[in-house]
Write a structure and sequence with these properties.
Radius of gyration: 20 Å
Shape: globular
Mean pLDDT: 88
Number of strands: 10
CATH architecture of the largest domain: 3-Layer(aba) Sandwich
Strand order of the largest sheet: 3-2-1-4-5-10-9-6-7-8
CATH class of the largest domain: Alpha Beta
Structural class: alpha/beta
Order of helices and strands: EHEHEHEHEEHEHEHEHE
Distance between the termini: 15 Å
Number of helices: 8
């Protein structure tokens, strides 16, 4: 596997946060960083070439400034400037990367609209895990949260989260969210036996999902939570105090379902912390 972290760089403040996050990880893991800036939007209009060349020059200058900051941390860094569709560029670049890191200008609840479709499309189609860094202050936060639903992709998310928690020397909070069967005729009423069995199944699934992690990281503090409700709401609520949240792109478990375009998309749309999307 490649030991390179690719970072999508723009002039937005969140992009600098993304670079800083990637550099901190690369420094601890001995990885290299590649900064990628993409100039898009060209349509072939008359006189466009000079505008495009200026934009490329500005992007190259921006990458050089960021590369100097990265080098000061003792991390090996390269830069690349592309022309075309930024989403397609980053997705293609991800095929040769260990990790792709992008920024988000979303500043949390009450700050305006949720992040746009570009980041969601990158997270959905990238060939490696994607970390999305929002423009938030993470001072005082602790812990790595991972959503667990018993699927194979969920297991990959657990492995990623455990490795990050171990690297950061933070506790791992593993969360399974279960939701009762949707049945309008019940009008919100369910037999107690059914609810209790759902809870027990969720607890059993979570325990099985973490069995290998406890063996691989015997010194890692692992906290478990089983919650009833809607997955994305609970995950983002808990993630608001975490340093990192980890989710799968989709899942096929009978409990919390991380379906691409559904739960994972909703988590990314309302980012509460730095969030890794694992496939």
């Amino acid at each position: 596997m490649s030991s390179t972290i690719i970072v999508g760089v723009t002039a937005a403040p969140a992009a600098r946060r993304a670079v800083d996050w990637a550099v901190a990880r690369a420094a601890e893991r001995g990885q290299t960083v590649e900064l990628v800036g993409v100039v898009g939007g060209a349509i072939g209009a008359v006189g466009e070439e000079s505008v495009l060349n200026d934009a490329v020059d500005q992007t190259r200058s921006l990458l050089s400034e960021e590369a100097a900051r990265v080098a000061e941390r003792g991390v090996q860094v390269t830069t690349r400037v592309g022309r075309g569709n930024p989403v397609a560029w980053l997705i293609e670049a991800s095929a040769d990367a260990d990790l792709l890191v992008i920024g988000s200008d979303y500043k949390g609840p009450g700050s305006g609209p949720a992040r746009g479709a570009h980041g969601l499309r990158i997270a959905a189609a990238a060939k490696c895990p994607v970390v999305v860094v929002p423009d938030l202050d993470f001072e005082g936060r602790s812990g790595v949260l991972v959503g667990v639903d018993g699927s194979e992709i969920s297991e990959a998310a657990v492995r990623f989260a455990a490795a990050e928690a171990d690297r950061l020397r933070e506790p791992l909070l593993a969360v399974t969210v279960w939701t009762p069967l949707e049945a309008p005729r019940n009008l919100g009423w369910y037999p107690e036996e059914y609810l209790e069995n759902m809870r027990l199944l969720a607890e059993e699934s979570l325990a099985l999902s973490l069995a290998g992690t406890r063996q691989d990281y015997p010194d890692l503090e692992i906290v478990t939570r089983v919650e009833r409700g809607y997955p994305s709401l609970i995950i983002n609520e808990l993630a608001a105090s975490a340093r990192l949240a980890v989710i799968g792109t989709h899942g096929r478990g009978a409990l919390a379902r991380f379906l691409l375009g559904s739960i994972s998309q909703e988590v990314l749309a309302r980012l509460a912390t730095v969030t890794a999307v694992v496939r």
